[in-house]
């Protein structure tokens, strides 16, 4: 029977993992912090271009983390650094560039977020086509139901903007960039792999150069001298470290499909936070959408558990 590498990564045999935080707790933290990143971006657009905020948050993160990661970085072989730099360019620079540039060109934020939230579907399709991984019908049903919940929750926030037609592809390409990075990271085990903090530092470091170019094309790279800009950079820096950090932590303990599907809860939670902070309207569709997404995530987790059990019986 053909089985995927993804299934073999589900078990957690290491004693250190037994003492770790429960995976659902990490996933809950991931959803909250990932959602706060969208709110931080929403907050920052009143003070500076999105690309400038991303550029300075990458600088801030690399500056603050460097004293803690300098030694392990020096001890890491260049080939490992190069691989992780490539993953970082796809996961952070590629994803954020697609979303922020799409919005900057006139793609509505709600629509850009919806395209970005196609991540579970995009990842599953890439895994099936490129890696020849097989998902059960239950998992596919869960992914589609979760997506339906996202569309319900964001229905009132969706609208077509005035962006050129090609700009709508940018958030989709950003989503695919993160999907490729996730699968690359999950399916390229390395005994000399970087730890979490050095990996985050490297991702932000290489992304700094990308956003230096992007922000430079839009204007000056100088920071905006006001408190709102400083707060935007600080806020999004915390969401970068926390969001990506928890994303990679969850990925070490679960399949890419499960981790990505959990992010279906991010759009409705983002809308709830936007209501609390910016007095944006709420609707019953948001609550219904979150409930539907929760059902979809449950089906994904249940379907993968059954697939793992069947795999164990056939070994």
Automatic annotation (TrEMBL):
For this UniProt record, give its keywords in alphabetical order, as a comma-separated list: Membrane, Transmembrane, Transmembrane helix
- One matching Pfam family: EamA
Ranges of residues in domain EamA: 30-153, 166-301
Query: How does the protein's chain sit in the membrane according to the entry?
Result: Multi-pass membrane protein
Source superkingdom: Bacteria
The answer to whether the entry has keyword Membrane is: yes
**PANTHER family, per the entry:** EAMA DOMAIN-CONTAINING PROTEIN, INNER MEMBRANE TRANSPORTER
| Organism in which the protein naturally occurs | Pseudomonas graminis
Q: What GO cellular component entries does it have?
A: membrane
Residues passing through the membrane, by range: 21-41, 47-68, 80-97, 103-131, 138-160, 166-184, 196-217, 229-247, 259-278, 284-301
Q: What name is this protein filed under?
A: Putative amino-acid metabolite efflux pump
- Give coiled-coil spans as residue ranges: none
Q: Which family does it belong to?
A: Belongs to the EamA transporter family.
């Amino acid at each position: 029977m053909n089985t995927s590498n993804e299934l073999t990564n589900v078990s957690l045999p290491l004693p250190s993992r037994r003492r770790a935080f429960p995976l659902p707790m990490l996933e809950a933290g991931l959803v909250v912090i990932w959602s706060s990143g969208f709110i931080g971006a929403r907050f920052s657009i009143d003070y500076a271009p999105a690309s400038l905020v991303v550029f300075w948050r990458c600088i801030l993160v690399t500056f603050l983390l460097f004293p803690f990661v300098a030694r392990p970085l020096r001890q890491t072989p260049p080939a490992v650094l190069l691989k992780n730099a490539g993953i970082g360019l796809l996961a952070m620079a590629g994803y954020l560039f697609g979303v922020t540039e799409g919005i900057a060109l006139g793609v509505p934020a709600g629509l850009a977020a919806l395209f970005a939230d196609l991540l579970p579907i995009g990842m599953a399709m890439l895994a099936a086509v490129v890696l020849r991984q097989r998902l059960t019908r239950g998992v596919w049903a869960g992914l589609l139901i979760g997506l339906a919940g996202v569309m319900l929750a964001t229905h009132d926030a969706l609208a077509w903007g005035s962006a050129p037609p090609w700009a709508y592809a940018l958030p989709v390409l950003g989503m695919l960039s993160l999907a490729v990075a996730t699968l690359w990271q999950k399916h390229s085990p390395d005994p000399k792999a970087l730890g979490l903090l050095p990996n985050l530092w490297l991702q932000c470091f290489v992304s700094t150069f990308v956003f230096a170019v992007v922000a430079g094309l839009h204007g000056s790279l100088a920071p905006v001298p006001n408190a709102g800009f400083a707060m935007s950079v600080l806020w999004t820096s915390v969401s970068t470290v926390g969001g990506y950090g928890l994303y990679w932590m969850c990925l070490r303990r679960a399949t890419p499909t499960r981790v990505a599907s959990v992010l279906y809860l991010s759009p409705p939670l983002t809308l709830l936070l936007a209501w609390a902070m910016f007095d944006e309207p709420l609707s019953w569709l948001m609550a219904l959408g979150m409930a539907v997404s929760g059902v979809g995530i449950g089906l994904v987790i249940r379907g993968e558990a059954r697939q793992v059990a069947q795999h164990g019986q056939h070994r």
